[in-house]
Every structure is written in C-alpha cells, then in structure tokens.
Amino acid sequence: MSRLDDPHSSYNDELKRLYDRFKEESVQPDAYFDEDDLIEIFDYASDMADDATRIDVLLVGARLYPSSEPLMQRKACLVFDTSGDESARRAVAPVAGSVIGRLLALRIDRPSRQQARERLESIIDGGSDFEDEWIIQLVHTASEIGEFAWLVESKERIMRLTDYPQTFLYEMVEVAKVNYDYEVAMTCAEQLTDLEPFNCEFWENLAEIQIAASKFDDSINSADYALAINPESVRAMMLKAQALYEMCRPCEEVVAWLDKAIEVEPDDPAPAHYKALTFYAAGFVPMAVDALEAYRRRHPDDLPTVEYLNTITDGAIPVDVMMAAMEKAAEGNDDWNAKAEELIRAGRHGAAVNMLVSSFRLHQIPPVSALFIELYVCRRYKELQDYMDISAIAGWNLRLPEQLAYTLSLLRTGAESQKVLDSIARTESLLDIGSDDDRSLNASPLETAGYRAVTAQIRRSLLSGEQVDIDAIDPFPVMK
C-alpha cells in the first residue's frame, strides 16, 4: 500500500516531516539518519516518483550503512526502474537471495508461464512476516509478467504472509484496474472498507471502482460514507458528482457537489474542469466557459484550462491567452501540431488554427500545411494571404494543398484576376512535379486529377470572364 495513502494519518504526517527534513539536511556532510529512517524515506520517495531523493538516500546510506541489505535491495529497485536489463542484473546480484532480489530477477528474466508460477510459488511458499515493500513488489511483479490470475488464485495465502493485509488488498485494487477486472477490484476494495470502515480513502476507492463498473447507486453510497468520515473530501464530492452525472441526474444537482468541491479547494483544477464538462454536455456552453474562466482568473497560465477553453469555444479565445499558457509548457512544436491534428479530426477547426498560429508565433518554425488549410477552412482569408506573403520572403517550401487554398482565398476575397492566375500557375507547377517530391504530398492519381480539374475550371472561368462558382469546386470543408 502506498505510504502516501497510509490510513494512520499521524504516522503519515510524521513520515512526511521526516521526508522533508531529509530533503533539507541530506546535502550537509554531517547529516545523520538511522537505517530505518532511510528505508522509510526511500519508500516514501518512491510513492512520490522522486528519483532524485531516492538517489540521495542511497548516497547517504552508502556512507553511513555500506553493508545494509535493505538499502542494497532498494538500490536494485532504483536501477531496475531507471536502467536497462544488464545494469539491473548487476544491481540485483548482491541481493539475489532476498525476496526483492528474486522478484526483480523474475521481471528481468521473463520466464515461461510455468517457470514464472513455480518461481512465484517458491517465493511465497512457507514465507511469513513479509514487509510492505515485499508485498508491493510481489503484486506488481506478478501483474507485470502476466500472472495477475495467479495473484487472484493465491490471494488468501498471500494475505496470510503479512500482519497488515491492507497493503496487499490496496495493491490488488490497483493492478486489477490495470487488468480491467473490476469484479476483483471491487471485492478487494470492499474488503478494505470492512477492515478499516473509518478510512475515507478506502471508501473513495470503492466509489471510483463502482463507477467504472456502472454501479452508480452503490458508488453514491460509498461516496456518502467517505463524506461522513471527511465532510471536506474533494475527491468524494467529485465521485458523487460523477455518479450523478452518469445517472443523468439534473445538471444543477451535479454542479452543486462540484461547487462544494471548488469551495473547499479553489485551486484544484479538477472540480472546475468537471463543472465545465457538465455544463457543456448539457448544452450550456456560456456557463461552461464561465466555469473555466473563473478558474483561469486565479490561474491565468494553467494550460489544461486554456486548452479546454480553446476547444469548447472552437478557438474564440485570444491568441495571446493561448500563447501565454503554451509558452510555459514543456511541449514543443511537434506536440502542438499533433494536438491540432486531433482537433481537426474532431471538427474543431477554429481551435486547431488557434493552436497552430500560437505555436508558429512561439517557435518561429515554418508552419505545417494544416495551418494554411485551417485558416482557409475558418474563412480567415486575410491571415492566410499574410502568411503566404511571409512564406515568399522566407523561402518556405510550400506544398500543393496550401497553394490551392491560397488561390481559392484570393478568389473569395475578390483579388485581381492576374493575381489569381499567377497563383494558379504556381499550383499547376506543383501538380507537375514528381510524386516523390514532398511538396506534392505524394498525392494519388485521383487526388491529382481532382486538383488539376479545380485549377483548370478556375482558369477557364477567369479567362472567359465568367463568374467562378467557388462552392461547387472547392475541395476544402469551409465553415459556415
């Protein structure tokens, strides 16, 4: 069971203080922590995914307790988590006979199913007094090597290995969810609430699993138990709201619980985001926007909030707002292009073009073809033409679709015929290049024929003085 979620809050608070003291004092050359402290700190740091502190623990441990087998076992765990198999094998060798060493070896060796089961059986056979960390490693090792079924079959035996079976049941809930076995997850979660009926987190976990299993009434009951234990549990409030939402209860009933969560934790984005989703799903788009804007006023650079706003308004938020949040994010230009492609597939062309424009302004990398196409689709013809002027100066290697989008934008804005004909000439030159040239997008013969037909029709209409029926020949899905 995660030390972060230990039901004994006083112990957990003490462990957190120990962890914080280590982070502050471990850099001092005369820092002293006893062996048990270091083991506790390492395990706590593992739950925090804090590899830097785990390394510091091992460095201090190597100085103070160079022969400590528990610390050598944890060194093997760290090397396994962060390195390749060969490095892990070397780290495991000094502790090969320990429970941790044998479990790590199983994960490295990946033996056949029969051998895996035999080795797992040998680890638990006749064992007793398993430490929490051994139990945690046992559950995750078995699940990782495809022996979740063995865990289920061996459940009662494993529980007898420890004086605190809650650790095993807690980890079983986690791996059961990973294996999509909600019946096992629910059974273990229910056992946890039986063993510790006043543990708020256990009731929350049960409520979450019951939602996943579509047992919404049961989930509401479990969330109510959690709230009876801790009336300010934001997670329980959100789980209750989610169950009500899944039951198609009135929007105001769902939002009432989310508002309570926001009141308790105004800086937590999750209730605000879920509130916006609830309003949006009910068709109340302005109220969804208001919910997100209320959070953004307190956290103006929160990227997920800005992305949600961009999506539900389909790009109606200012580019400056988008850029300010994007600038502080770790994503690069390729990441934004990929996200924009997802928005395009979802029909959110305005949101996509807002993201593409923001990314271009931030990174100053020649924009992907999608930017030109999406500007055209969103009827932002003047911007498209401005980008085309920039491309001529910068020498960007334009491709067929964006050149055609530019041609059509000129037509739609009433440009002079000669300017349109010059653009058609450039479009036709791209049609005539080899299919192995990137600018052609490797278009199929049918696609090439379609593009050629469009440009030919435009040329004929312009040269004969006829009005071009753009909508009849436009290959792009222009927004209304």
Your description of this structure?
By secondary structure, the chain is mostly helical. It has 28 helices and no strands. It has helices at 9-25, 35-47, 51-64, 69-82, 85-92, 99-109, 113-124, 132-144, 148-153, 155-159, 166-178, 182-195, 200-212, 216-229, 234-246, 251-264, 269-281, 285-298, 303-312, 319-327, 333-345, 349-363, 369-377, 381-394, 400-412, 417-431, 445-464, 470-473. Helix 3 runs antiparallel to helix 4. The protein is elongated. The two termini are 55 Å apart. Residues 1-8 have low confidence and may be disordered.
Please identify the oligomeric state: single chain
Q: What shape does the CA trace take?
A: elongated
Task: Give the biggest beta sheet.
Answer: none
The end-to-end distance, rounded to whole angstroms, is: 55 Å
What is the mean pLDDT? 90
Helix fraction, binned, reads over 70%
Give the class from helix and strand content and strand pairing.
mainly alpha
Please report the number of helical segments: 28
User: Which sequence of SSEs, written as H and E, runs from N to C?
Assistant: HHHHHHHHHHHHHHHHHHHHHHHHHHHH
Number of strands: 0
Low-confidence stretches: 1-8
